[in-house]
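Internal tracking record. Fields below are filled automatically when a chain is submitted to the structure queue. Please do not edit lines marked as system-generated. If the sequence contains nonstandard residues, flag them in the REMARKS field before resubmitting.
Queue: standard
Priority: normal
Entity type: single polypeptide chain
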Amino acid sequence: MVDDIHQASVSLIDIVNTFLTTSMLEQGRMAFRNDNFDFAAVVLQTINKYKKMSAAKGITLSVSNLTNNSLAFEGDKQRVEEVITNLLSNAIRYTQQGSIKVIIDKTDIGLKLSIIDTGVGIPQNQQSLLFKKFQQASTDIYTRDVTHGTGLGLYISKQIVEAMGGEIYLEQSTPGKGSIFTFTLPFVA
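SYSTEM-GENERATED OUTPUT FOLLOWS
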């Protein structure tokens, strides 16, 4: 019973923090730091947090396009990690079997990260709901899966990425085959 109370308290704190983050982003009151950090290291650390959860579901979680060289980046490390966490946790939540692959690409103007899953996919007619506040890919608000979240993860991720000068989008999704979510962040000039 104590474990249940503790878990419920942790969940409630997470929900409150999510609402506070949303409010700060919408009001333009969120301060973004300019940390110098290794983007690749942040990706690997975030992936390592989810290795046990993906293994428990029998899902292969991998990263590609990482070399021994670091990917120096300037931006808000904590917020970048939050975006990766949101995308990765969604991929694990909606993938029942198969794999999730994280791909990092360095371009002339910045960095691009894609998360490719073999999950349930999102029908074309529901894709317009993505990145909107309190929305999940479901046509009916009464039948959406409220047990897994608030419908704010992609919305917050979009706000963060755009505030940092980047772009986030659903690159591709096919029901029954999976999805590719991508975000880009520019190098600071």
